[in-house]
């Protein structure tokens, strides 16, 4: 099979593969992840930090993005080493399914019978050899040292033997080897390192949104690449241009403005927390797809004078803060609701640049909100808790922590939250139902089950609303009525948005308008 980003054929690899990617990709000036053999000392600090982080994720089910910064800080890694450790951790986690298949070919024991710490070292080594700009000898030697240091001499010998065999061939050879005899989704699952149920889910979602199943490998590849950090310049507080200038000046980063959201500033690198605008809440880290979801909801047609918007599942508050900026300019206030006390605090922090008159944060179960505040809001956002299959670029371990059975509870919760939102919105108002997952069970099926037989509701054409406000009006957002963004097509997380309007009382309900075709 052909795999994006690899050369064809299974030739023995040259000592240094110029096609190797750092994984950080697209032509920004200051990419600094190139990293060779750092020292001859036993414990290479960057690799040791990566090992510890990977063990915490494996053992304690920790989130890489939460444990890694602390480990980097404690080890006092410099910027280049920190970038190396980050790439090693994220890349190893994403591609561990592929690497486990290679280990399976090279080991005489089943991978489940191997010491998990040894498996971690092997995965790290294979990632450096096949994916990173690290010389083979450096990858092998440092991993042998790490195994000797963290494990013992026996496993170090196995690390040496396995990794040396890996260096004998290039990525293309190994992809052919691990997919030999497999076809279709099984082969894609192996090669691109996804659980098979996710491959099927992404395929079904692609096809349902009018795309070709042949685009699936490109999507899987895109979800394996790290996402650029994107900032949102909150409307009325700072402009995207001002924010970009600040990032270039203080982070020494290259920037580009968004193609979809006029608030978006994409960074080539740098720690955005160091920006005063971020510290003061004038801007925040937020994927362009998430920004677009909030902006499209704010742009949807509603009737009557607007007073209140509600964000039903607000934590940690990225979309609330963007909505607040837009609401302020229209003399509207925002109520942000969040069930988790900790995340409600995060919403307060995200919206600290706005007064209490603009944003009020409540802590409570969103499922009860509609019953408590019926007809309260002109616009309601339900950014529902979901499987997160659309943000795998940012959550490297997520694909391994979720299972298809998790979806049952999630979709029940999503339906309850959507029903509550529909109670909260006043006639003539609009509910935006969003997920950072393209899974059909969490997206259109939730919407279609909920609006079925409700003559008082209509589903609006979300891509049509989006087209009116996106920066590049030529950008193809696919057919409506739902907006489904894709990392490979749009460069965003795979966010979903449905806009549902509650008809105003003067409108005679027409049953045909809600007779959506439900796909089983
Ligand atoms: C996808 S996140 C929302 C992200 C947020 N809109 C943003 O842009 O920062 C979903 C949120 O829903 C919250 N949540 C889960 N169950 C909830 C419930 N029953 N009521 C309200 N919020 C809930 C989660 O704690 C989580 O913070």
UniProtKB/TrEMBL annotation:
Keywords attached to this entry: Methyltransferase, RNA-binding, S-adenosyl-L-methionine, Transferase
Active site, per annotation: 436 (nucleophile)
Domain SAM-dependent MTase RsmB/NOP-type residue range list: 219-503
Ranges of Polar residues composition bias in the record: 19-33
Chain residues that bind S-adenosyl-L-methionine: 313-319, 338, 365, 383
Region (Disordered): 1-43
Keyword Methyltransferase: yes
InterPro entries for the chain: MeTrfase_RsmB-F_NOP2_cat (IPR049560), MeTrfase_RsmB-F_NOP2_dom (IPR001678), NusB-like_sf (IPR035926), NusB_RsmB_TIM44 (IPR006027), RCMT (IPR023267), SAM-dependent_MTases_sf (IPR029063)
A Pfam family it matches: Methyltr_RsmB-F
UniProt GO molecular function: RNA binding; RNA methyltransferase activity
Alphabetical GO biological process terms: regulation of DNA-templated transcription; RNA methylation
Record-stated family: Belongs to the class I-like SAM-binding methyltransferase superfamily. RsmB/NOP family.
PANTHER family per the UniProt record, alphabetical: NOP2 YEAST -RELATED NOL1/NOP2/FMU SUN DOMAIN-CONTAINING (PTHR22807), RIBOSOMAL RNA SMALL SUBUNIT METHYLTRANSFERASE B-RELATED (PTHR22807:SF53)
Name of protein: Putative ribosomal RNA small subunit methyltransferase B
